[in-house]
UniProtKB/TrEMBL annotation:
Gene3D superfamilies xrefs: Tetracycline Repressor, domain 2
Keywords: DNA-binding, Transcription, Transcription regulation
InterPro entries: Homeodomain-like_sf, HTH_TetR, Tet_transcr_reg_TetR-rel_C_sf
Residues annotated as domain HTH tetR-type: 5-65
PROSITE patterns to which the protein is assigned, alphabetical: HTH_TETR_2 (PS50977)
Annotation: DNA-binding region: 28-47
Molecular functions per Gene Ontology: DNA binding
Protein name, as recorded: TetR/AcrR family transcriptional regulator
Length: 190
């Protein structure tokens, strides 16, 4: 059972890194098999088809996001610091000139199964809901300053980080992500 879990997790880890670099339509099971050092039949054992793999990827990514934001919540009460730590979640893939899996899956949205599309929407909603809560709390406490509704600001914040990933990747310049992320934080403290 432990071997099964390790093999399935290794497949998911490998698939995620490939998706973050090439997109969901940019690989086959043969690519994963080559990187992991197993036969494609072994991948089919755990994930009978690519849609099953996609569903497992987005579900795991969502769980990891929930875990990451829960950790942020336990580490700090300051809303501004929470937002800084949130930007680190989005900066991690940029270090390898990739984007988060959500961004890459969104670019392939029309070709994804309904369940993967639904999982992606749930992931984005979780991001937006968390951001809205943090922004709203920060404004109530006087730590953050912005015009308009917190949910609008949350959308702008998330879209800016996702766009920053794409620019950093396109230019192969990490400083572009940092510039945008820093600008987002600075704009909320004026």
């Amino acid at each position: 059972m432990n071997k099964t879990k390790n093999t399935a997790e290794t497949i998911l880890d490998t698939a995620q890194s490939i998706v973050q670099e090439f997109g969901f339509n940019g690989f086959s099971y043969a690519h994963i098999a080559e990187k992991v050092g197993i036969r494609t039949a072994s991948i089919h054992y755990y994930f009978p088809n690519k849609e099953d793999l996609g569903e497992a990827l987005i579900a795991r990514y969502h769980r990891n996001f929930i875990s990451a934001t829960a950790q942020i919540e336990t580490e700090t009460r300051d809303s501004l610091e929470k937002l800084r730590k949130f930007t680190l979640i989005y900066s991690a893939p940029v270090q390898n000139y990739c984007t988060c899996m959500g961004v890459m899956l969104a670019t392939d949205l029309a070709t994804l199964s309904g369940k993967v599309q639904e999982g992606l929407a749930q992931l984005f909603n979780a991001n937006l809901e968390w951001l809205e809560q943090v922004l709203d709390q920060g404004r109530r406490e006087g730590h953050l300053n912005f015009e308009g509704a917190a949910n609008v600001q949350a959308h702008q914040f998330l879209a800016s980080l996702q766009g920053a990933q794409l620019l950093a990747r396109s230019f192969r310049d990490l400083s572009r992500f940092d510039m945008i992320a820093d600008g987002l934080i600075s704009a909320l403290t004026k």
